[in-house]
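Record format v2
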Amino acid sequence: MVVTSRDVARLAGVSQPTVSRALRDDARVSEATKVRVREAAQLLGYVPSEAGRALSSGRTRRIGLLLTDLDNQFYSHIIAPVHRELETLGYQLMLHTESADNDTIVERLLANGLDGVILATTTVDSVAPLRLKDRGLPFVYFNRTGSFVEADATVVDPAPGYREAVRRAVELGHARVGAVLGPSNTSTAQSREAALREALVAEGVALPESHVRRVPYGAAEGEAAASELLARPDRPTLLFCGNDVVAYGALNAAHRAGLRVPHDLSVLGFDDLPEAAWPIIDLATIGYDIAGMARTAADLIVRRIEDPSAELEKTRFESVFVPRRTLAAARAD
Amino acid sequence: MVVTSRDVARLAGVSQPTVSRALRDDARVSEATKVRVREAAQLLGYVPSEAGRALSSGRTRRIGLLLTDLDNQFYSHIIAPVHRELETLGYQLMLHTESADNDTIVERLLANGLDGVILATTTVDSVAPLRLKDRGLPFVYFNRTGSFVEADATVVDPAPGYREAVRRAVELGHARVGAVLGPSNTSTAQSREAALREALVAEGVALPESHVRRVPYGAAEGEAAASELLARPDRPTLLFCGNDVVAYGALNAAHRAGLRVPHDLSVLGFDDLPEAAWPIIDLATIGYDIAGMARTAADLIVRRIEDPSAELEKTRFESVFVPRRTLAAARAD
DNA sequence: CCGCTTTGTGCATACGCATACACTGACGAG
DNA sequence: CTCGTCAGTGTATGCGTATGCACAAAGCGG
């Protein structure tokens, strides 16, 4: 049988509420009693019931992280820092996945008695934020934002990174460039494309629509799209990729096509995932404090939960160009 | 305010228990009533409270996945299939991390009202399984097993894979081999080392202790250990790695040391993670049905929960050698 | 047409914890 | 010496759901 606060109370010779108070270190309980209660709890191996606490207090100290794609390397790198940060704040992380067509995700989130949600794969046209707002479930945007509802958010400003990357690319002689961008219904793909185009215009480099593809942020998708672009007679000498995972796909495509990187093709990613720094990959990319952003998202949702009237906060992370092997001089051909 | 089953009951003109029964499709409720209740619930946007249900039923339909290292690529590839499988079984996944020194993990698991736990990073000397058994919290071993307690388990038999890999390596002329194995307090490292040594003996290849390192299953650790071995004057022509992640590290080490793979060095991994098949990595390895194993672990824990008296089941997955670029002929030097 | 079964629903209660409120005793101010 | 105060603890209750049991109504065989 499971040990309850009643059992502890009996052993310590106090009432059940006193146990509850003592173990949560309530100031109104005398030190002597606290000691007795703690000893009794220890002795019995008492562990407070999460369900009882949740029902009584109305809070679960559980936070959902909503993703579409658990297989994606990008999200793997998010989960760990979010998890750690929430743990230090005394909260638990719960993963949730939504498929694009599934309209019941908000119900599923609500059903789980979450205190709040971190939205990591919001599309600009998603109604989930609206629903969450209706239901009064606090949430924050991570990386991507939705269009319909304002909320606390962490975002990356891609402009500085792209400005420097494009400047450098031009120096290296790249004039015929292509791009495998992310899905156009994501705020990240939109802001990155805008920043990229602005930087290209500033440097006088054209990016014809024929050399642009837009695909989901996956390695396989990146590979397929890159393969198309690389098969063109006027194939680009440099491929801007929507993120690192797509860039991995592009590297694979180049490899399959018998092109050497960076001799025949330069590739630029976005995110600076840990693997991008590996010698065997050595991907030039645009980086930012990805773990810090994950931590900030955790901080923001907790703050929102504990102070619902706090002012809206949109934390902006600067991006920076990270030069590596895969961006080198355009071959004079 | 949150909608409760009482509100639904009022609207549908029935009692609260009838709502509870109707929504869970209890056979004793008439079809007409069910329809009325469902409509009322729909109208009010009723979502059953997880906490109330948990308190009343004593079950949460929540299962923990215990890991040490969320950053590790191996575990990233586990999470998705486990999550999916549990979802189809009507359970929720909850991630938990333990640090090696932390002795309170079992308390933390209990405190979260889990119905069961999947242990994915058990060391052979871990007492966690003992504690879990004491507390009556069902659990299964995933991949690794502990020594003190029997439980449902999914494991890999590395012997077939290593037999074939070593046979092939010998054909390719490798005679001076090294190994970067996993930590010796894991059942996987133990069984893989045994299988590897047996295969080597069968083929008459020596594996001197000077050419063996044992490190945690991480890329950085693999890189450091491989660097040591590659710096030796009698450096091996083939490196057996404890798993793919360690092998990635070894590839990085080779790259940094200016050695070309496979011309100067062959590398063999274990697990056949999706990235291993990427053209830019193309890692020879020993594979098995890793997603199937994850699904099976999920199935086993659910079965154990729903039928505590079920017979112990240890599911064994066969391994198979996966030839790829990184294992090629030893250079005659 | 009566009593028994079957079907459908309500009533009462339990789950474990937190919290508003009441209460007791000790202490100090007047 | 009395009364107010306050620290410390207990009492009562609520949170939302599930379930054992009682009960009413309908169906049915004899």
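Residues 14-18, 21, 28-30, 33, 52, 54-58 of chain B lie near DNA strand C (CB under 10 Å from a C1').
The interface with chain A takes residues 45, 47-52, 54-55, 60, 70-71, 73, 76-77, 79-80, 83-84, 87, 92-95, 97, 107, 110-113, 135, 219, 248, 251-252, 255-256, 274, 278-281 of chain B (CB under 8 Å).
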